[in-house]
Inverse folding.
């Protein structure tokens, strides 16, 4: 009996420790929430997305990466400092545009943009452990239409597609600790916002604006806006008055100034993409949703998966005439308008530069990982260019 009494406290202590360890693990892991974005992980490994790659010794030799020819859309930096300044978990990489820095076959990875390279370059002494990386943030309409020549050429991919080796998104919205865990909690926060008296519409004098440069986009956004303008006041800003607009805000010369003007004056921003393709959503959306304005989106991304509910308006859920009526309804009711801003204290939006950093950091870490998997993208044409991945010049009716 005395021996059993001695064993019992030890057993209870073991149960307590096991319970605490379980709770700790659950608290620090990602938690899935139906219909809502995932909350921020507290662990550095998960937050950087680098748990995907095996951690290696910092004494491993520097990995050299070549930017081949004109890698359009590259925004990260040059040298090893780019990885250090970005705070990469593994920063022992060196990236350069100088193709003579070392012989081609001695680069650990070569980054190539097919939209500028057009056809595969024949690296005569390519080594089996080199990684050729496809890099683009352009939709299929802006790529070479015959990509069959790149079959089995690339080992890894960096694109806007979520199923890339290293997804290069234009931005992301991350839930904070105060973000709702259930749909019911989100609804309660929306109600709180409506009762708060906060008025994001204060001082705004105009309804909606569209900033555009491509007047013949494959998404056919130009037709949608043309019909929309028949039923609601929509201002258009464009270079040299293209697309029926005004040369009022040259975004290329003063990007921040343009968005500040829009944010101060307008209630809605038309974040209409030039292509309606799987996963394709650009800075138009992330720039506007991070400001005091409601984005009206037209694109092929799963917006419900990347943004909080009731934080944007999807134009494809309405005909142009129906959308005009809804925008005017919100324009008349500041309380309903304010409800779209409920999420602001509970989420953090990041722009293109931050998420590009994650892709390049992960690339560096992957180069240091062992063992290398010998694999190639068998068909870039079917993976990236398949017509069913996009809607080509959809029809929008005036009804």
């Amino acid at each position: 009996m005395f021996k059993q009494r001695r064993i019992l406290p030890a057993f209870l202590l073991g149960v307590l420790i096991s319970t605490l360890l379980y709770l700790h693990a659950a608290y620090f892991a990602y938690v899935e929430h139906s219909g809502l974005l995932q909350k921020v992980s507290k662990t550095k490994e998960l937050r950087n997305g680098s748990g995907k790659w095996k951690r290696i010794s910092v004494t491993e030799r520097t990995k050299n990466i070549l930017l081949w020819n004109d890698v359009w859309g590259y925004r990260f930096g040059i040298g090893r400092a780019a990885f250090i300044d970005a705070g990469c978990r593994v920063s022992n990489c060196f990236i350069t545009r100088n193709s003579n820095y070392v012989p081609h076959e001695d680069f650990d990875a070569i980054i190539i943009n097919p939209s500028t390279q057009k056809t595969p370059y024949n690296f005569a002494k390519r080594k089996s452990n080199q990684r050729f990386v496809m890099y683009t943030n352009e939709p299929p309409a802006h790529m070479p239409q015959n990509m069959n020549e790149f079959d089995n050429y690339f080992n890894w991919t960096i694109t806007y597609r979520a199923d890339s080796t290293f997804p290069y998104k234009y931005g992301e919205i991350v839930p904070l600790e105060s973000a709702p865990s259930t749909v019911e909690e989100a609804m309660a926060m929306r109600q709180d916002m409506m009762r708060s008296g906060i008025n994001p519409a204060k001082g705004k004098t105009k309804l909606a604006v569209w900033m555009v440069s491509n007047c013949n986009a494959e998404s056919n956004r130009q037709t949608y806006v043309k019909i929309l303008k028949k039923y609601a006041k929509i201002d258009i800003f464009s270079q040299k008055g293209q697309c029926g607009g005004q040369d009022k805000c040259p975004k290329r010369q003063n990007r921040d100034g343009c968005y500040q003007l829009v944010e101060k004056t307008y209630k809605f921003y038309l974040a209409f993409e030039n292509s309606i393709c799987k996963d394709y959503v650009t800075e138009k959306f992330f720039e506007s949703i991070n400001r005091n304005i409601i984005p009206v989106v037209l694109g092929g991304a799963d917006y419900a998966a990347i943004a909080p509910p009731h934080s944007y308006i999807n134009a494809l859920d309405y005909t142009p005439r129906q959308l005009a009526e809804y925008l005017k309804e919100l324009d008349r009711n500041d309380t309903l308008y304010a409800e779209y801003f409920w999420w602001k204290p509970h989420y953090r939006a990041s722009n293109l530069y931050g998420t590009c950093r994650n892709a390049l950091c992960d690339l560096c870490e992957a180069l240091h990982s062992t063992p290398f998997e010998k694999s190639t993208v068998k068909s870039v044409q079917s993976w990236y260019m398949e017509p069913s991945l996009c809607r080509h010049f959809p029809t929008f009716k005036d009804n």
About this structure: The mean pLDDT is 86.
